[in-house]
């Protein structure tokens, strides 16, 4: 396990490819609007856990996957940022479903290794702003 963590956290971090659409500042906070490239992502959904707990658990599973916990046993390196989506419950709370996603590094986009953890799914995502 330590090798997987080392491979995923200490290797080169690949930035999620994007185009800068605009940037500005509002209330002394700088921001950028980006068009983030689509592609293949490793994703895990967690249900019924508080947002913080679910997002941490999902990130750890994905770090293990890119660190070598896959059918090829290959450390792929990291991409950043990690995408976290909260799907609110009917009462508006963020405790119903959380999806944590990590863009698969460019060199593995065409043929990503299969995760050994069955809760991790490989999915195709479109460009997003």
UniProtKB/TrEMBL annotation:
<comment type="subunit">
    <text>Monomer.</text>
</comment>
<feature type="region of interest" description="Disordered">
    <location>
        <begin position="108"/>
        <end position="129"/>
    </location>
</feature>
<dbReference type="GO" id="GO:0005737">
    <property type="term" value="C:cytoplasm"/>
</dbReference>
<dbReference type="Pfam" id="PF04832">
    <property type="entry name" value="SOUL"/>
</dbReference>
<keyword id="KW-0963">Cytoplasm</keyword>
<comment type="similarity">
    <text>Belongs to the HEBP family.</text>
</comment>
<feature type="compositionally biased region" description="Basic and acidic residues">
    <location>
        <begin position="120"/>
        <end position="129"/>
    </location>
</feature>
<dbReference type="GO" id="GO:0020037">
    <property type="term" value="F:heme binding"/>
</dbReference>
<protein>
    <recommendedName>
        <fullName>Heme-binding protein 1</fullName>
    </recommendedName>
</protein>
<comment type="function">
    <text>May bind free porphyrinogens that may be present in the cell and thus facilitate removal of these potentially toxic compound. Binds with a high affinity to one molecule of heme or porphyrins. It binds metalloporphyrins, free porphyrins and N-methylprotoporphyrin with similar affinities.</text>
</comment>
<dbReference type="InterPro" id="IPR011256">
    <property type="entry name" value="Reg_factor_effector_dom_sf"/>
</dbReference>
<dbReference type="InterPro" id="IPR006917">
    <property type="entry name" value="SOUL_heme-bd"/>
</dbReference>
């Amino acid at each position: 396990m330590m090798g997987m963590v080392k491979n995923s956290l200490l290797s080169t971090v690949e930035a999620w490819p994007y185009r800068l659409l605009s940037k500005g500042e509002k209330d002394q906070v700088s921001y950028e609007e980006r068009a983030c490239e689509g592609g293949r992502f490793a994703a895990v959904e967690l249900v019924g856990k508080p947002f913080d707990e679910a997002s941490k658990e999902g990130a750890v599973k994905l770090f293990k996957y890119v660190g070598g916990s896959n059918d090829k046993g290959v450390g792929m390196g990291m991409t950043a940022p990690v995408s976290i989506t909260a799907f609110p419950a009917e009462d508006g709370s963020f405790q119903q479903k959380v999806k944590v996603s990590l863009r698969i590094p460019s060199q593995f986009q065409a043929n990503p290794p299969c995760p050994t953890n069955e809760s991790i799914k490989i999915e195709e995502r479109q460009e997003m702003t």
